Amino acid sequence: MSTTIPTPSPLPIPGGTTKPPLLNYILSFLLVGLAWGFTTPFLRRAAKSHNPPAHPLLERDSVKRSVVKRKTLGAFFAVTDLVKNWRYALPLGINLSGSLWFFLLVGGSELSLTVPIVNTTAFLFTVIGEWWVEGKVISRETMLGMFLCLGGIALCVQSKQGV
């Protein structure tokens, strides 16, 4: 006597479609662009103002004599010192989570739209972040470039509507 285990049927999606609504994709693109672009000025500011403590291990003669030990330990302490600094670690975590979101987004959306839209929004959010964090003035040329980028995104999306 054999028994079969019933497989669950997929949950119904409102509207009867199998794809998430377009608004979900738009918000996802914006969130990834925000995570990548807006955190960049915060990372730069934290890296510039970072003042690492002295590490006695790097002063030992055995470490000073060995290029491999000196470089390896120096890199290790540089990374751990930055990660311990919350002003660097927090934006880095957000930035890296954007990479995870991007990976998930690529699996469910059109690649020829995802990459240009996310990279362009990252650029736009970087400019806005520099204005917010560093007080940089957004020049007329940069503003024009931002609007042209938005126009390019609109053209990319419009070209895919007929497909």
From TrEMBL:
Highest taxon of the lineage: Eukaryota
Coiled coil: none
Family matches, as Pfam families: TMEM234
Keywords annotated in UniProt: Membrane, Transmembrane, Transmembrane helix
SUPFAM superfamilies: Multidrug resistance efflux transporter EmrE (SSF103481)
Protein name stated in the entry: Integral membrane protein
Native species: Sordaria brevicollis
GO cellular component assignments: membrane
Compartment(s) where it occurs, according to its Swiss-Prot or TrEMBL record: Membrane
Family named by the database record: Belongs to the TMEM234 family.
Transmembrane residue ranges: 22-43, 88-107, 113-133
UniProt membrane topology term: Multi-pass membrane protein
